[in-house]
Amino acid sequence: MSERHQNLAVIGHVDHGKSTLVGRLLYETGSVPEHVIEQHREEAEEKGKGGFEFAYVMDNLAEERERGVTIDIAHQEFTTDEYDFTIVDCPGHRDFVKNMITGASQADNAVLVVAADDGVAPQTQEHVFLARTLGIDELIIGVNKMDVVDYKESTYDDVVEEVTQLLKQVQFNTDDASFIPISAFEGDNIADASDNTSWYSEETLLEALNDLPEPQPPTDAPLRLPIQDVYTISGIGTVPVGRIETGVMNIGDDVSFQPSDVGGEVKTIEMHHEEVPKAEPGDNVGFNVRGIGKDDIRRGDVCGPADEPPSVAETFQAQVVVMQHPSVITAGYTPVFHAHTSQVACTIESIDKKMDPSSGEVAEENPDFIQSGDAAVVTIRPQKPLSIEPSSEIPELGSFAIRDMGQTIAAGKVLDVNEK
Ligand SMILES: Nc1nc2c(ncn2[C@@H]2O[C@H](COP(=O)(O)OP(=O)(O)OP(=O)(O)O)[C@@H](O)[C@H]2O)c(=O)[nH]1
Ligand SMILES: [Mg+2]
After folding, report:
1. Does the beta carbon of 18 sit less than 6 angstroms from any atom of ligand 1?
2. What is the largest CA-CA distance in the chain?
3. How do residues 87-107 score in pLDDT, each as one tens digit?
């Protein structure tokens, strides 16, 4: 085990090869043995899904295997000399962007997969925008399926140019992006430099992953653990699971779940199927709290110390950037907000200021509406209790995405919370 940890999201348009790439990385790093890939190959062929053997490492649900698409996010671990990686494979299909948001909000850095034969596609754009707004620092761009385009350098250059334009559009620092021509399926430039791309002499994907900057130490904020699921496990009882965003959880701590507003003493903490006395930021844990039953808490609750409980917003003020909206956004608009693992309908109560996105200065006070491309400060009223924090205090719990009509409309950061 390495001492250092990276949470990595794999994002990109449907079918561009994200799951295949994760399966390939696990195979190349020895986390998945060859005979398992062989079993998957047989199953995939039986289902008429030949070629999905690496994707099946990640796509475990029966429906995912039948349809050949990822539906929910899946986590896997692998280790290199530099890092212990927890890799989150996100779905690319437009119907499952809400699951991608959860995945991206758990990651430090991301690999964007873009198929060389397709280039920038709608969810390439949507995922890059969300990654940027949800606080992903660095992007590695795998230009995948190079085998399909005969490893042509000119095709690679075209895709690099197209993605670079997109990164600039969403104001991603392109110095923090590195591009690699790969074939997840054939294994080119994943662990070893490929003979098929003699025109490319830079890093392989694994080298680029090892060279990622170490994630910034988390803020000294109190414990915040958004609940992703709640299980009942025989012999233990109710086990909420999630990733610790900030702070530390110890056995014996008194904790509170908000907005469900229940709490108790932490009895057990489990990580990678082992009991541990404490867990830290970045750790994916399952735990048990005295007196808490399955119906007392739910996905979207945040667990924190009883004496510094997670904030529950009556209203909050936020800075938002509108990505796409068919018409205009006015006060009274009530789309679904996705923050950490929570999804709650919220009303935009007032549009307080329109900002100039390039200078960050106020362009207009109390505008009547905002539209695609605008940045604004707005006041928001959740229609159901929502736990959220000011981005300046706990950035990990201070960002959100706004979705409506099956697409991401906007994303933003919380400036101020008026607590209930
Ligand atoms: N030729 C070739 N095919 C690939 C490559 N990578 C993936 N594929 C194929 O592309 C198809 C989709 O691969 P997936 O890995 O499921 O794609 P995905 O991005 O995870 O798709 P979603 O999770 O549904 O968004 C499968 O048939 C793969 O075999 C590649 O490098 N070369
Ligand atoms: Mg997939």
Report:
1. yes
2. 63
3. 999 999 988 887 888 788 778
